[in-house]
Amino acid sequence: KAGVTQTPRYLIKTRGQQVTLSCSPISGHRSVSWYQQTPGQGLQFLFEYFSETQRNKGNFPGRFSGRQFSNSRSEMNVSTLELGDSALYLCASTDLDGPNSPLHFGNGTRLTVT
Amino acid sequence: AQSVTQLDSQVPVFEEAPVELRCNYSSSVSVYLFWYVQYPNQGLQLLLKYLSGSTLVESINGFEAEFNKSQTSFHLRKPSVHISDTAEYFCAVIRTGGSYIPTFGRGTSLIVHP
Fold first, then answer.
1. Contact (CB<8Å) A97/B100
2. Nearest residue on chain A to B33, alpha-carbon basis
3. 3-state SS string for chain B
4. Model confidence at B77: pLDDT above 80
């Protein structure tokens, strides 16, 4: 099976712009989660989607949003970019509910806001 | 809510030396515990997990971790490290009866010198 695929790998945007990141989960995985990784904060949970519905949400402002399509592919959008949004954004998928089902991560999208 | 503390942001060691990466957690309920590893320019991969049963869990590449309920710790150890173990290591917890969204520590960078 192909792993979790995130596109693009790198993005450079200007403050105030918006950006959309894409994630294709492992085939058959219905849960997709998004994390923001920065050197100072580690991994911060953004949100989780399951069967096209946002099931869990972290403590991020409304500028961060996401969605999931019927084929489980997911996108996240960040509007009105700020310098502090520069980070590695990781997507993870899993096939079952429960702690016995590990997260499978993509290689991430590195976003730089100038 | 649960929290995870990784006491060391960076651990430098020489090849073939033993290493311990420390992880402490805080939770009002029982938890499941995980270690993930992130190699350069990649996403995270599950290294090992504790769900129940034996408090000592092992990975396929020689790492082990021991769940210590009284000290609320889940330290990761390896008796002899290799250059290829150089990576970022993340401890994570999921509280029982919750949403199965893990809370991650800020990570420990293991740097193995020849």
1. yes
2. A99
3. CCEEECCCCEEEEECCCCEEECCEEECCCCEEEEEEEECCCCCEEEEEEECCCCCEEECCCCCEEEEECCCCEEEEEECCCCHHHCEEEEEEEEECCCCCCCEECCCEEEEEEC
4. yes
